[in-house]
């Protein structure tokens, strides 16, 4: 079970709390976690990564275990602590705007 | 008694203002989708409880929301707007080729007869259609693939398709406007398009009378005369009486003919409204006085409407989709400002009052006249 933290607007949209848990079959990569997240909450499709290219939206960042994983390719394995469910995979909105 | 529902899209959410037919007491509901930009909220003419909303965020992209109960509850529907085929390029601000990229939906235009059919005007300029109540969208690529497409260039707000008008006498005919490509017409439901910019003159582009490249801010139509359109261009107020084949300038005695919205009285097809703005570099009313101008002659002769509007120290703007009319016997006129006020007139513009005063900046105003 992978823990995923979501920013407030996406919590509202998906009607969930700050953290959700998703099952990932196979390798625990960034792409696999986002696939599982979008499968569980289809309303999030297109809000974290582009529908077509699957690229991360520019004003969102991915963090886990105090590391910025935003620029890692989607097939990179997440830290073991995330795979074990000890630490969350965090989707964070950039601090910008008015 | 009839009722009025005013759908207000703002920089920080959507609001629904309701009143009975007297239009003197208003209830404000919202914000819906707080913190998101609501570019446009519009109801179906065929089912007034069916509403569509374009919800946008710089962080999270585009969502489309749908309500089946007049805006009390909402359901997110499909948000996938994919251009069909090779996307090609349009011109960037510096004239270099730039790939077409979907950014947001500026305008939603429900079908006049089918609540499940709705058109979406997008940035970068393209037209999308849903026939299943927003659960899926497909592009009408004939517009974006028009032979002039590679020449289109964004206005300051982006390359946005912001206006969609459906001819009530022939639903296959539609008119759209793009900043800064100009106005276009289809006679086959959106499969093919013709630029309709003959007669426009834009001094700020290399060829002032070019077939495309004009920064059209808004066009409006009266349902009884679908061949007559009124246009607020970047500068100039224009009209056509032949479905856009030729335009003539009707700015007349306006103190400035720069502005964004334009609309037509519900029952008087020659009575039109604009909100003059000082200039393209100073987007606020002249002399700090918020004045709607009305022409009862289809243009050229204009009168300022000021009663109830601030006549000093007012420096708001009124954006292109932020004016609408109701269909009560005494036609009501509504507009919203970037200062968060929504003004209403229950007497065709003779007098005004603020029906909401402290909203976020208003992006769009639509009005539903309820039975």
Can you put this structure into words, describing what you see?
The complex is a heterodimer of chains A (98) and B (371). By secondary structure, chain A is an alpha+beta fold. Chain A has one domain (2-93): Beta-grasp domain (Ubiquitin-like (UB roll)), CATH 3.10.20.30. Helix content of chain A is 23%, strand content 20%. Chain A has three helices and five strands. Chain A has helices spanning 8-14, 30-40, 80-84, and strands spanning 2-5, 19-22, 60-64, 67-68, 89-93. Chain A has a five-stranded mixed beta sheet with strand order 2-1-5-3-4. In chain A, a hairpin with a 2-residue loop joins strand 3 (60-64) and strand 4. The longest helix of chain A is centred in the middle third of the chain and has 11 residues, at 30-40. Chain A is globular and about 30 Å long. In chain A, 24% of the residues are buried. Chain B is globular and about 50 Å long. Chain B is built from one helix and 30 strands. With 371 residues, chain B is mainly beta. Chain B has a single domain, classed as Methylamine Dehydrogenase, Chain H, CATH 2.130.10.10. The termini of chain B are close together. In chain B, 1% of the residues lie in helices and 39% in strands. In chain B, strands 3-2-1-30 form a four-stranded antiparallel beta sheet, with no helix packed on it. The A-B interface holds A 7, 9-10, 13, 43, 45-48, 50-52, 57, 59-60, 93-94, 96-97 and B 35-36, 57-63, 76, 79-80, 82.
Keywords:
heterodimer, A: 98 residues, alpha+beta, Ubiquitin-like (UB roll), 5-stranded mixed sheet, 5 strands, 20% strand, globular, B: 371 residues, mainly beta, Methylamine Dehydrogenase, Chain H, 4-stranded antiparallel sheet
Give the helix/strand layout.
The complex is a heterodimer of chains A (98) and B (371).
Chain A: E1 2-5, H1 8-14, E2 19-22, H2 30-40, E3 60-64, E4 67-68, H3 80-84, E5 89-93
Parallel strand pairs in A: 1-5
Antiparallel strand pairs in A: 1-2, 3-4, 3-5
Chain B: E1 3-10, E2 13-20, E3 27-32, E4 37-43, E5 51-57, E6 61-67, E7 75-76, E8 89-91, E9 97-99, E10 104-110, E11 118-123, E12 126-130, E13 138-139, H1 141-144, E14 160-166, E15 174-179, E16 182-186, E17 194-195, E18 216-221, E19 229-233, E20 237-240, E21 248-249, E22 262-264, E23 272-274, E24 292-295, E25 303-305, E26 323-325, E27 333-336, E28 342-345, E29 353-356, E30 362-370
Antiparallel strand pairs in B: 1-2, 1-30, 2-3, 4-5, 5-6, 6-7, 8-9, 10-11, 11-12, 12-13, 14-15, 15-16, 16-17, 18-19, 19-20, 20-21, 22-23, 23-24, 24-25, 26-27, 27-28, 28-29
